[in-house]
Amino acid sequence: MLRVTTAVTAIVLAAGAAFAHHGWGSYDAAKPVTVAGPIVTSKYENPHATVTVRSEGKVWTVTLAPTSRMSTRGASEKVIAVGNSISAYGYPSTATPDEMRAERITVDGKTYEMR
Amino acid sequence: MTGEAPAIFVALEQSAFGAAIRQSTWLFPAANVGHVLALAVFAGALAVMDIRLLGGLAATSPARVLMRARSAAIAAFVMLAVTGFMQFSADASHLIINPVFQIKLALIGLGLANLAIFEFCVKRSIVDLSPGVAMPASAKTAGVMSLAIWLVVAACGRTIAYF
Taking CB atoms and an 8 Å cutoff, what residues of chain B touch A13? Predict the structure, then answer.
């Protein structure tokens, strides 16, 4: 019984690994980037907030944190409002071009941890 | 990203319902928590049923144990479906093309098919059995299938976020 379950689970995980695209596994922690510029769009939503940021001729999608954690740490909806200037430090996605997951963001001189 | 989601799932995600779940501070986490608590009840009830089918809890009347556990399992499954649909609606266009989510859905189908086979083909051979009487092979097979399928479904559920 346990052997069957373990085997099936292993197969499921192995099959899924080939398509990996979400979660921390698909962000490259070895190549941190800083994306700085004006916020173009802003979603204060679950499971995590996201902003798009115009930086050096590109529009980055920056994945942030769950809204409850954001607001607990003072990063309210107003902090990431469209038009605000943001600097996001984080890791680029290995699956989606121009997407990154922020470790921390700085807006108006204040830094907010996202993890 | 492994492809484009069918329009109906894009529409669900963009519906007022999907948006409400994303934009509320507490609805999404509440669905998360409700899903896990319902899973605990579901797994417990199923374990009682499956263990009885496999010949454990031998001193009990199979029909009674199965009926009581079945009620709890059905209630928990409804709760799982509701909280699962809430989470799905918030991000339907991505989830529907997530390979682990697809495996999970297929296994839920398999688990329900196993239950249906049990209900309509196997159950009648065991409901009148007295305590202490050995279970037929068909009942044991249904129990093993059920345990294996639902454990992997649970593992898939936790794993979706990593793919």
Answer: 159
